[in-house]
Amino acid sequence: MGRTFDEDPLTLAMAPPRDETPEQRQLREQAEAEAKKISDEIDEQIRRERDVDRRRKKPVKLLLLGQSESGKTATLKNFQLTYARREWSEERASWRAVIQLNLVRNVNLILDHLTQEMGGSSGYSDGHNSDDSELEIQVRKRAKALPPLRFKEKHRLLKLRLTPLAGVQADLERKLGEASQEVYATPVNVAAPFEHATNRRALQEFSINSTNGWKTALDKFRTPRPARPEAGPDPLRKAKEIEDEITEIIASCKDDIKELWEDPVVTEMLNRRKVRLEDSPGFFLNDADRLATRNYQPTDDDVIRARLRTLGVQEYRFIFDHGRTVGQEWRLYDVGGTRSSRAAWYPYFDDVDAIIFLAPISPFDEKLAEDRRVNRLEDSYLLWRSVCSCKLLARTQIILFLNKCDLLQAKLQRGVRIRDSVPSFGDRKNDLPTATRYFQQHFKDISKQHSPVARPFYMYLTSVIDTRSTAVTLGAVEESILREHLRHADLM
Ligand SMILES: Nc1nc2c(ncn2[C@@H]2O[C@H](COP(=O)(O)OP(=O)(O)OP(=O)(O)O)[C@@H](O)[C@H]2O)c(=O)[nH]1
Ligand SMILES: [Mg+2]
């Protein structure tokens, strides 16, 4: 074959030798085919590694489920405190308003009871009302049998001096928005309304899907920037003035708040009415000395204990700055836990790496706020069963937190007997290890019976307001979720 002088040197170098025999040609072509095969394999390997790498960098998605007040948001806060510390520190101060509202609510609740008690001869009317709960009827009966409470002039004055806190509560609730109000009776009477839901779009009206969650409420309480003089009255500065006014009123009520909470007649009144504020969400009365001050700044523990209800489904994006996955994005989905909020959960089951399911085990003798006929533990069992049996979640890792162990311990120490509310507990020992073993076994049995495909049972006993022990639990959880995340990345 003739060659021209203008062919480029590379083509010349790659060209077969002029005097190549047919055998040599066959060997050469075989060698070239082999080299191409190896090169293609290397290319494919690089492509696959890039793909896995890209998937590894995909955000880890974690969904928090459980009934209202089970501790989902408190768990989320622990994640932020442990793994996204910078953001946590930036936000801590803006929780002050929520904590102030929690404290003021505690006080106003006592004042409401006081007003009812001091209102009539014994504070209770004689007639029964069809709306009265069984507890109220019982309380009324017991109160009649006991000597009257000895209220003094001091109680009337305390009520009078603490009146401004009603206005403070209203102001704070208005500023914090709907999340600051607790929900009571709702029309939904099934534990898992998500079971019949189909797609995200159909449910949009139920869900507030925001990418900044509690920030919406807290943003109004960030430190204002200096206003430009030509811009007129600065709304942020105005907000700051209101905030200072609220803080001033609370600080000026400090001694009265403490006197009210430490008063023996008030204690007796709350006992008779079976009101245990200490166990309720957002209890801060024992911290009034520290909180009701002009320069109060929330501590980490205060923020974890602060109660702000979750509305709809909230997405939080954190780039972890601590832990094994520094630089990795995590998306945590926090949901409202009342029965009427649960229909909005289903669309989020689709694409999560793991679920943390929170079941509080201390309220075994309490009712749901949204439906006073339903026992809280029973509701958790039903909800757990629905989540375990959900086909869409058949291969999703589910981690159970049996939460509020601290409150369970305190309740058992006070002598509350489990078998009075949970007859199947029987004559077992009424102590913490026996109780947690018993509840754990019940959840394990449900998971075994109702999971469509056998799944491992991951369970932790938690008190998520204890940030130290929770950090240890989250370390184990992080590792196991990450392992699953990477396994998925390798399989895809
Ligand atoms: N003592 C104690 N309190 C807890 C524990 N876990 C949560 N709490 C408190 O219980 C209250 C309710 O917790 P949240 O985290 O707001 O509950 P939630 O599940 O997010 O509730 P919703 O948003 O209404 O669905 C908060 O004030 C928490 O600080 C716990 O283990 N022990
Ligand atoms: Mg919440």
UniProtKB/TrEMBL annotation:
GTP binds at residues 279-280, 403-406. Gene3D superfamilies: GI Alpha 1, domain 2-like, P-loop containing nucleotide triphosphate hydrolases. One of its GO terms (cellular component) is heterotrimeric G-protein complex. InterPro entries: Gprotein_alpha_su, GproteinA_insert, P-loop_NTPase. SMART domains: G_alpha. It comes from the Eukaryota. One of its GO terms (molecular function) is GTPase activity. Residues 17-42 have a biased composition (Basic and acidic residues). SUPFAM superfamilies: P-loop containing nucleoside triphosphate hydrolases, Transducin (alpha subunit), insertion domain. Mg(2+) binds at residue 310. Keywords: GTP-binding, Magnesium, Metal-binding, Nucleotide-binding, Transducer. GO terms for biological process: adenylate cyclase-modulating G protein-coupled receptor signaling pathway. Pfam families: G-alpha. Residues 1-42 are annotated as: Disordered. PANTHER family: GTP-BINDING PROTEIN ALPHA SUBUNIT, GUANINE NUCLEOTIDE-BINDING PROTEIN SUBUNIT ALPHA HOMOLOG. This is G protein alpha subunit. It comes from Lyophyllum shimeji (Hon-shimeji).
